[in-house]
Amino acid sequence: MKTRNLVYLFFSTLLIGSTAGMVTGLAMEWTQYWNDLKNGEIVSFLIVMLWLLGVSSIFSLISQMGFFAYLTIHRFGLGIFKSVKLWNTIQVVLIAVALFDLVYFRYVVFAEPGDSLIGYIGVALLLLVVGLVTAYIKRRETNKHAFIPALFFIVVVTILEWIPGLQSDDQKWVWLILIPLLVSNVWQVLTLHRITETKNS
Questions:
Q1: What is the C-alpha to C-alpha distance for residues 14 and 59, in angstroms, rounded to an integer?
Q2: Which residues touch 120 (CB under 8 Å, ≥6 apart)?
Q3: What is the pLDDT of residue 198?
Q4: Is 82 helix (H, G, I), strand (E, B) or coil?
Q5: What is the per-residue pLDDT across 93-117, written as a single tens digit (0 to 9) for each?
Q6: Burial environment of residue 183 by CB neighbours within 10 A (0 to 12, 13 to 18, 19 or more)
Q7: Distances (CA, A) of 107 to 96, 114, 115, 117
Q8: What is this structure's pTM?
Q9: To 10 degrees, the CA torsion angle through 9, 11, 14, 20?
Q10: Closest alpha carbon to 62 in 166, 151, 184, 169
Q11: Given this model, what pLDDT does residue 81 score?
Q12: CA 24 to CA 58: how far, in whole Å?
């Protein structure tokens, strides 16, 4: 990858992920922030925006580290198993395990007596759907072998990067961490092959 492409991927991911996190944070408590604006507390609102932007940028950077780490692991996997089919099968198993753990362990740790499992399953389904859509686009724009790696990255790597947020049952932090990670990861997966102009990325 050329240096200018690497710089573009870095800064575009940082900008998009940070902005997504900031918008998410504002949307979750928009009534409060809107009241602040109506009361003329513009400086306070701008400080909150900058704080959200800064926090989200941290997770956007984590996303980028995870992306390049996975690219390395993926190459190792292909080299060790000597078979795209076998390596993809292993990744599918890991996807299933990661989704199960995401639902099961969060339910065991945070669920109160009588709580429904549906809410915990819903988050995993959202992640899976985003992964499937991203992987489909990746496959259509590159090659059929790109589907499973793209799905694995969006699901498994995002969950690993999301661990700090998963340790709390505070919904604000759960989503404030997930959205910049997910948006950054999707952007990187769908941008890499476009800036390198290759169907093998």
A1: 9
A2: 102, 103, 106, 107, 111
A3: 64
A4: coil
A5: 999 999 999 999 888 888 888 778 8
A6: buried
A7: 17, 11, 9, 7
A8: 0.90
A9: -90
A10: 184
A11: 87
A12: 15
- For the segment 2-31, what is each residue's pLDDT rounded down to a tens digit? 788 889 999 999 999 999 999 999 898 877
Tokens of 43: 């400086």
Structure tokens at 129: 């759907």
pLDDT in tens, 153-185: 999 999 999 988 888 777 888 899 999 999 999
Q: Which two tokens stand for residue 28?
A: 């979750």
Structure tokens at 150: 């793209």
Ordered alpha helix ranges (H), 39-117: 42-81, 84-110
Which amino acid, residue 197? E
Place of tokens 């072998």: 145
